[in-house]
Amino acid sequence: MSSSDIFDVLNIQQRSKSPGSTASPTPTAVSSGTNGNRTAKPQVTGMQRELYSLLGENQPPVVIQPSNKFKEKLTAITKPSPWTNAPFKANSTVTLHHWIKGTKESIGSEPQESQYAKLNVHLTIPKFNKEEYETFMTKTDEQKQDVANQTADTIKKEENTGSPGESWSFDEIDYLFNLCRRYDMKWFVIHDRYSFGKPRSLEDLKEKFYEVCRNYFSTNSPNDPIMENLNYPREKELERKKYLQRLLARSAAEIAEEEALIIESRKFEMAAKKTLNERESLLRLLDSPNSDQSVSQYMTSQGIAQLYGSLLSDKSKKRKHNSVVPENPWMKQQQQFAQQRQQLQQMQDKRQDGQDLGSPRKTKKQKQEIQTAMKRKAESVYAEHLLKNFSPEERDALGVITHGDKLPPGVYLRSSKISTFKPALQNKVAAILQELDLPIRPAMPTAKVINRHEELLKRITTLVDLKKHLDKLEAEKAIAK
């Protein structure tokens, strides 16, 4: 296969190598469409020209863009600021260098102070020479000797410390004050670096420093407020350190015993707090109401309702802290009564089931009526069972009554339970009671009176019913004649 065949397959025309010859043409890409509608293809980077020409009219699905892994060059308009490696004073003896923004002319050649020099603050400790030291220490000793009414603690302290001239020389005092200036009153570091003559304890160094400062200020400026803070309690400091050593030297058994004692003390505190709360609630309950206030505000119904609400809220506040409800002493007896009542109910149900087997089938309403009657009978039997140890005389004397029906909650009057009838029958009953010179409602509604009144009403209703039937039969008899 020749190259011309490949050009024909790829739809590529050939051009002549020279303008006068057309025998050997060079390949050129032909655009899609007619010759008159040729459009230049966009130049694409990132792909070889031969590979892109093989795609033809099918454009790539992804736009090919040049990939540059480097950041773009910064286009800075302003010139960079100059920096200078300038010297500075770290302290009075050391000079270092650091970079500062600016030129050498603007900074200067002399070393400047560090920007952190303002934070290097030292304590102000008094300075004195040997003559001044001997002067104010001698004056102070004379003042102490002139005072006749010194306390026993001051005398004991002077005996323990002695005079400063006997055990402390001026050179040692000066060495101590220099260490205090150098280490900014960091006493543990001062005690570690102290090496002048015989060894001194930390308490000795502190006590001597405060004593000299107190004598110095009392001579030069006795009214300075710093005098109040120049008293060093050496005995208390030694006692505190001994206590701390004993605390750290405890054994594991002693620590456990101390924790157990702490827990027991907390239990006692909680018990005492609970006892105080119970006592307070009891005192509130026993406290009588304040009679100084007027009772006229409680004379109306609104005042009575307000008083009732305040009593209820006070009752809830009193019992708010009582988390445990006391046990009812009659709870066991009530449980026994409930068990006995349940057993009687089961016995009645078994009897009823045995009777229902031999009797014909009953309706739903009849079953409900029978169940209600049995329930009332069981309740009355249960009540009689509870009162079987009481004689009739004792029942009358104590006013104990058994109720077969379930009583409504709350307080009610016996007269409100008197039987009532339809309006027509009620008028006839009232007329009969009026003929008998009896009131419609008893004047003294005791239990016996109410029971007799109920029996009388039942007999009256029975007589009225019989009279009604008798009148009906007489009317039918008169019609039949």
UniProtKB/TrEMBL annotation:
Residues 16-34, 333-347 have a biased composition (Low complexity). InterPro entries: DAMP1_SANT-like (IPR032563), SANT/Myb (IPR001005), Swc4/Dmap1 (IPR027109). GO terms for cellular component: NuA4 histone acetyltransferase complex; Swr1 complex. It is found in: Nucleus. Signal peptide: none annotated. One of its GO terms (molecular function) is transcription corepressor activity. Belongs to the SWC4 family. This is SWR1-complex protein 4. It comes from Torulaspora globosa.
